[in-house]
Write a structure and sequence with these properties.
By secondary structure, the chain is α+β, with helices and mostly antiparallel strands. Helix content is about 30%, strand content about 20%. The strands form seven sheets. A nine-stranded mixed sheet has the order 1-2-16-13-18-11-9-3-6. Strands 22-23-24-25-26 form a five-stranded antiparallel sheet, covered by helices on one side. Strands 12-17-14-15 form a four-stranded antiparallel sheet, covered by helices on one side. The longest helix is centred in the middle third of the chain and has 21 residues. It is globular. The termini are far apart.
Amino acid sequence: MEPPTSPRHRKVDARWLPAEAQRPIIDDAPVFNPSLEEFEDPLSYIEKIRPQAEPFGICRIIPPPTWKPPCRLKEKSIWENIKFPTRIQTVDLLQNREPMKKKPKSRKRKRRRNSRMGSSKRRSGSSPSESTSSPEAEEKFGFNSGSDFTLDEFEKYALHFKDSYFEKKDSGGDIVKWTPSVDDIEGEYWRIIEQPTDEVEVYYGADLENGVLGSGFYKRTEQLSGSEMDQYTVSGWNLNNLPRLPGSVLSFEDCDISGVLVPWLYVGMCFSSFCWHVEDHHLYSLNYHHFGEPKVWYGVPGSNATALEKAMRKHLPDLFGEQPDLLHGLVTQFSPSILKDEGVQAYRVVQNAGEYVLTFPRAYHAGFNCGFNCAEAVNVAPVDWLAHGQNAVELYSKETRKTSLSHDKLLLGAAYEAVKALWELSASEEKGSTTNLRWKSFCGKNGTLTNAIQARLQMEEERIAALGRDSSSLMKMEKDFDSNCERECFSCFYDLHLAASGCKCSPDEYACLKHADDLCSCDEKDDFILLRYTMDELSSLVRALEGESDDLKIWASKVLGIEHSDEDQTKTSSVVSEEKKLKEGSFDLNIDLELDCQEDLKEEEVSTSGGELTSSENLGVSVEPINLGSLNFGKLWCNKHAIFPKKFRSRVKFYNVRDPTKMSNYISEVLDGGLMGPLFKVTLEESSDEIFYNVSAQLCWEMVLQRVKDTSNSLGLPSLPQLENINGLQMFGFLSPSIVQAIEALDPNHQLVEYWNHKNQASSDSKDHFMSSNCSVSLTKGKLFGVDLM
């Protein structure tokens, strides 16, 4: 029970003063109406409108009329029974308040990261899109925790407050029913902010994590009535899916960071506010208005961010004098009218139910609610964000501010994905998937991604040179250096994924390259610098992204597990030369850059479980042959257990990598990888964007299996025992007796010596072991693809 002084128990005495309205007169931000076709791909659409919308910092997107996702929050069990916490906002003190007598200690809220390995804490930051403030910051300024409400209770309270505040009476003293316009509410809101006459306190259910009410969108794991509802659970505009869409570099973040990769809900009432702020790491944000009354936004483009900060410091000197990082607290509102007078570009958006609001990198935004409503927001990072994100972490370092993400991990993840796309496009005779073509568009000389890697390389070169250390102090960073714990500079909290400086005197403490000399006072001989990649290697990566074939082969070999021929090996000497200067170790969180040839994986195709078929046998695999292909008699085109015809194609059913609750068809193919021999490819037939390549049929299908497992884990699906192992040769059809017979018939002269020697020498038991299978194909008149099987 709350005390009688709580706003929930108070009579609403404050009243609307229309004659003193302070509505800002500023221009509206642009509004976009995507067609059904444009609406299919959120990232492509954002990329399309960016040149027009980014100069405003904010825009409104109105979906096609057919976009009507059901809101799960309206289920009776949620609406009437589940409570959520609120905060009390004193609206009249958001701009005009006295500084505190004693400067509060700097405390930062840490976001919870929900990893597949469990939960952990990482770093501080603001929530997406319409952030309010951290609980600690609110308490500093008297914004305390409020009541817990159900949605049903909150709606009733919000309606009572608004009706009372905007109450009108006729000449006879009777209450007149009417509805204030958005302009009426906006004028009164800024009057309260700028020229308050009464205390106005409201509740806001803000920054509600997924574990409270859950998402307003249904997820893939939740059952909906009617197959037409599937479009909403799988759509990229469903905010549960947006951050990890192909092309968003946030997809390379392993942990589910609440508020960044996992959406937050906002349940508002009239005058509840979100104060001026930018997104963590200057990310994009997307906000969807599920239901209720409008939300009014104000945006300032990233190009005017410094001007806004300057204007606010000028007009609120006492508050900033007390707390220089005031804007990080998200507790200060400021009139767009004053910003306009100070020459700051500010724009307005009115967001209605069913509409999206998009904010751009480093675009300050703020706003308030016109009544009871519910919205949801999350971050997203198209490739063009990388330059903004780099600027953000450099700024955080100067401000000694903790980060929420490892920017370098995302940057390298994007580079790996681009290398994979470029290699697949070069190896395929087909046009290429939409996803691969998109990655290619960011590469080449002066490509967005190429420039981001080049800028990071130049930054590292300059910092290493500035230290003036001998090359003997350079060491390879261990593969798992920051896999199990956060590594950040002891001085400025800069993320140390790419490089770190240390000393023997403090084995668990590290510095960034800018603060290496501040770590300790030991002799330089005890210092060392850990590098994930040498400068030569990063230069090679830049060239690979530019399209240099030799460098692309080097990086494709690491990303895809492709091996080099002896001729290719000689071309890597410039990269190896610097690598050999460093001590032994690994170079990346997932990818080793050792350039020696690995053991021939094709020799290990059949099984890794005691010589028996792995559990794909238990799936009742039935492989349908599509095209037998033709033989290539090079050494790599067979192994002891199978022959790999060029352009071979087959179809098989397996768990869908996007939705493991259903089985879908996959197309397995053998492509010509040139000097590397066969390149194995598996594609989800219903989605050409889901492609897997490897020089090993086994590893190719293991990649599919791992994706199924990852998706199952992320969706909270129960694990399936039959997904522990898979047999790649079986999934391709190379263990199906009828397919094997057809392929063998292509080589009547036994030119593929390795295969035939093993077959002839093997005992009958070995033959049974390697060739038996539950696979089945349809045969017509004793022939397969026109080849006589007799």
